[in-house]
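Why do we bother with a discrete structure alphabet at all? Because it lets us treat a fold like text: something you can write down, compare, and reason about line by line. To make this less abstract, here is a complete entry for beta-N-acetylhexosaminidase. Read it the way you would read a sentence in a foreign language you are learning: slowly, and without expecting to understand everything at once.
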Amino acid sequence: MLLSNTNPNHCMTLKAAILVILVAFASHAYALWPLPKQLSTGSTTLKLSDDFDITFDGDSTPQDLLDAIGRTKDFLRNDKLQRLVVGRGASDADAVSSAQSLSSLVLSMDSGFSGQMRSLSEEAIDSLELRVEGYSLTVPSDGSQAELKANSTLGLFRGLTTFSQLWYDLDGTAYTVEAPIAIVDEPPIGLMLDTARNYFPVADIKRTLDTMSWVKINTFHWHISDSQSFPLQVPGFPELAAAGPYSPSMVYTPEDVKDIRLGNNHNRLLLYYLYLYGIW
């Protein structure tokens, strides 16, 4: 009844206002998560060339950084993220067709870096106050090489993740409509998972770790046990896991913990928390 009595002109005005608001917000929507500390973008369309490559300008590249570069290239080739706009970016076709092509991203250490490069796995276990994960990323609009610079291997790794989030897909072509792009960032985010109160299967924990890497969550705090449950098998103390978990199947074995630790190949700090009962 309310709708039938509504002035049609008012409805059209309201719809127009909502459309204007949505368009305004869409123009500032980014696929970056989390947003970098400093972000500058333009309005030029740029696409990745068919032979796009990522290289490191330096010596003795750690193997796990090379692996991360390979994963990034695979992701850029296979990710099919489309723009969150009407038509999913179909209206960009002409601009993409005539756009300049970016052929390379070059990684390098900042000019102030001194010392020997360490592997990602080594840097990932540094204490929080010693870890350096900042980076700068520039993507020109004219097709000249993009540059990623950092003072650490971890910084390069975080920058690779950000670079991979800049591109949309249109009929198999990766492109952006926001070149040139300049980013300065240092990921500060961690995640705590409380399996004492909410049991997570090992496969789900590993999937969570994979997801964390794509959004630059760099510290995983695993709250394994507390007064609610003790789901961890401890060699020499079988009674804890026998009486402590919610059910016999909701238990983490030493092999499970090792599997999660070794599966942490996306380079974040793992912090374990065990609550030990004071009264027996």
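What the structure line is telling us, in plain words: Residues 1-6, 20-27 have pLDDT under 50 and may be disordered. The chain is about 30% helix and 25% strand.
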